[in-house]
Specification:
The protein is of the alpha+beta class. It contains 3 helices and 14 strands. Strand 6 and strand 7 form a beta hairpin.
Length: 218
C-alpha cells in the first residue's frame, strides 16, 4: 500500500474537493443557506476521512492487533469449523476512524471483494447481500493465519482495499478503508483471546490476543 501521511485519507479527497468547491460557488453567489450546508458537509468529510497516525505498539512476538476501530459486539466459539475456532465481531460507525490496518506481520493469501447493497445491519438480508470483502492473512514462517471479513452497513463509500494478493504487510500498516461497517475476525485454534465484549478497539493499537505454539490438526 502506498504511504499517505496526510491528515485526510486519500479515499476522501474527491469528496472533500467537491464540498469545498460547492462552498466557494455558493459564497460567490451569496447563497448563505447553501453555503452553510456546504461548510457543514466539508467538516463532516474532514471528520469521517481523517487519517491519524497511530503509535507502533511493542507487543511480544505472535501478537495480533485490531485491524479496525470499533466495539466488540460478539465473541463466539465455532463448533463446526476446522480451520478456525473463534469468531470476533467488531461494530464500527461513522464516529470511528475508517482506515484498516494489518493485524500482524504477514502476507495476504486471499482477497475476495463482493460488490453489493448497503443495507442497515438490522436488516436480515444485510449479511447476505451487503458489499463485503474476505481476506486471509498468513505468516509463512509459522503458518499462523486469520481470516477477516469486512461488511458495509449504510455507507456513503464503498470498500477500498489498497493491497494485492501476496503482498507482505507489517503489523499496523494500512491496507484499506471501510466506512461504517462490521468486521468479523476468524481466529485459529492456537489463539489466546485478550479482549471481551464491549471493549473499544483502536486499529493497530488494541491487542486482540496471541498465537500460541500449540496447533490443533484439521
Amino acid at each position: 500500500m502506498r504511504s499517505n501521511l496526510l491528515p485526510i485519507a486519500k479515499e476522501g479527497w474527491n469528496y472533500l474537493a467537491g464540498a469545498v468547491a460547492s462552498f466557494l460557488l455558493f459564497a460567490l453567489f451569496d447563497l448563505n443557506l447553501l453555503q452553510f450546508l456546504a461548510f457543514v458537509t466539508t467538516l463532516f468529510f474532514v471528520f469521517i476521512f481523517r487519517n491519524p497516525e497511530r503509535a507502533s505498539m511493542l507487543y511480544q512476538e505472535n501478537s495480533v492487533v485490531s485491524p479496525v476501530d470499533g466495539v466488540v459486539a460478539l465473541i463466539e466459539e465455532l463448533q463446526n469449523e476446522n480451520s478456525y475456532a473463534y469468531k470476533v465481531e467488531v461494530q464500527s460507525s461513522y464516529l470511528n476512524v475508517a482506515l484498516l490496518r494489518a493485524p500482524f506481520t504477514s502476507s495476504l493469501e486471499k482477497i475476495e471483494l463482493h460488490k453489493g447493497a448497503r443495507l442497515s445491519a438490522i436488516k436480515s438480508l444485510s449479511k447476505d447481500i451487503n458489499e463485503n470483502v474476505k481476506l486471509t492473512f498468513i505468516d509463512a514462517k509459522t503458518s499462523n493465519k486469520i481470516k477477516i471479513v469486512h461488511r458495509l452497513k449504510q455507507s456513503i463509500k464503498g470498500i477500498d482495499i489498497d493491497a494485492i494478493k501476496g503482498q507482505n504487510l507489517l503489523q499496523g500498516s494500512r491496507y484499506g478503508f471501510v466506512l461504517n461497517g462490521v468486521t468479523e475476525l476468524y481466529l485459529p485454534h492456537n489463539f489466546r483471546i485478550n479482549i471481551g465484549i464491549g471493549n473499544e478497539l483502536r486499529a493497530s493499537e488494541s491487542l486482540i490476543g496471541y498465537f500460541t505454539t500449540d496447533k490443533k490438526k484439521s
